[in-house]
Structures are given as C-alpha cells and as structure tokens.
Amino acid sequence: MKITPQCVVALTWTLKDTLGDMLDELDEPVEFLLGGNDLLAAIEEALQGHVAKDRLELHLEPENAFGDYDENLVFLELRSIFPAELEEGMTFDGAAMPAGASAQIPPEHIYTVSEIYPEHVVLDGNHPLGGIAIRLALTVESVREATEQEIGQGSLGAGFFKLEPFASGNDTLH
Question: Average model confidence (pLDDT) for the chain?
Fold first, then answer.
C-alpha cells in the first residue's frame, strides 16, 4: 500500500542536527496518523506515495521543523509561584500558568522551565528544537489504512513532535 493522506505509517528514524549530533533515535517502529496531528507537515508531505521499506533522508530548516527561536517567548517569573518540586525541563501550559504569573505570557504555548534561580524561574515557550535545522533519516516500516476512529481522534497519541504540559509523573518533552 502506498502512503496517502489519512493512513497509518509505522516509522523508525534517526534525528540529528546539521552538525551530526544525535537528537533522537526511534529504533522500534511507532505508528503515526498521516493527515492528523502526529507528524510535521514537511514529513507528511515527503512520505506521500512511499511504501513499506522505503528510506528517506530529509533536511528540514527551522521554519519547516520546529520554528525559528523567538526571544519574546522567554519569561522571567517569580520562583515562589511555582511548586516546591520544580525541576528544569518541566513544562507548563501557557493557558494554565500559576496564579501570579506575568499577564504577558501568551496562553497558546507550552513553556519549559529552562533555569531555576533562588528568586526566579526562566520559562521558554520555544520548542526545545526551535531554531535548529534537522536531518531526519527515516524508514517506513509498514503502511495501513486508518480506521474511522483513528481519523476522528486526529492522532494515534505518539506525540513525538508535540510538547505536552507537565502532569504529575510526567516531565518529558515528548
């Protein structure tokens, strides 16, 4: 079966920056819904028409990957408004910031705690790979038709390219 919009593909990949430094490796196949929210648009476009066992080498500039780095999405907030167990790398939904947070924080972003000082916390609304050109070597492991339920959900829940806000027991960026 050829890859078409709204099908399910199982992928493995190696993700590197342009200097060749490893950013992520997916060595066990994971299924993604094309035509949903699982993959970057540039990846979906490149996959169209391919079949199982095809290999692709993609070079994505920031504007086609995780966006340019925006210094206006970095905020210095009071340490006292955050939980005591705060750690670097935790994420917070901009629409649900703790009481007392700056009113200038755009609510449509996820913010990562990038630095913690005794009196302040640095929050960064950029994706951790924002501003970075990436190289993605991927292999199509399998292709199948998506079910109506999968299409209705818009995702298979893999979330490798999305930031998720901090939830108890979850401080990952995937």
Answer: 89
pLDDT digits (tens, 9 = 90+) for 5-51: 889 999 999 999 999 999 999 999 999 999 888 999 999 999 999 99
Q: Which of 72, 82, 93 is nearest to 115 (CA)?
A: 82
CA dihedral 9, 170, 131, 155 (to 10 degrees): 30
* pTM, entire model: 0.78
pLDDT at 107: 93
161: confidence class by pLDDT, cuts 50, 70, 90: low
Q: How does DSSP assign 84-105, residue by residue?
A: TT--TT-EEEGGGPPTT--TTS
Task: Give the separation between CA 114 and CA 52, rounded to whole angstroms.
Answer: 39
Domains defined along the chain, listed by start: 7-66+129-153 (3.10.50.40), 71-124 (2.40.10)
Q: How far apart are CA 47 and CA 100, in angstroms?
A: 45
Q: How far apart are CA 93 and CA 80, in angstroms?
A: 18
